[in-house]
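for ur thesis appendix - YCII-related domain-containing protein. copy paste whatever u need, i formatted it the way the template wanted (i think)
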Amino acid sequence: MAKYLLLKHYRGAPSAVNDVPMDQWTPEEISAHIQYMHDFAARLEQTGEFVDGQALAPEGTFVRYDGEGNPPVTDGPFAETKDLIAGWMVIDVDSYERAVELAGELSAAPGAGGKPIHEWLELRPFLTEPPTITE
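the 3d part is after this line
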């Protein structure tokens, strides 16, 4: 089994087919979208492929270390950044092909007008061992 992270970008990914921003959806469309996500996760829980997933708030802060004895440096919050991750899901599957299959299915969550969004999801494998450095 291999773990993959599915990143759901609200901004920063290529445009979706049904590219109506969520803040322009009706309450019913938002509910249908969230229900699709819940149903998808529940189905993967039944197969043992779901690990975890969460929606994220639009605000975020960049934080970095600023040296011994100094408080961390922050920059933000930035809700208006170019790239905005709306949520994530971790899956544990038998193959890359299965991960691609599930990501494709998840990208069809309904959006405006109840039509599938066909959004681009970023699929990232977990690093299983440190990279080998050769000179």
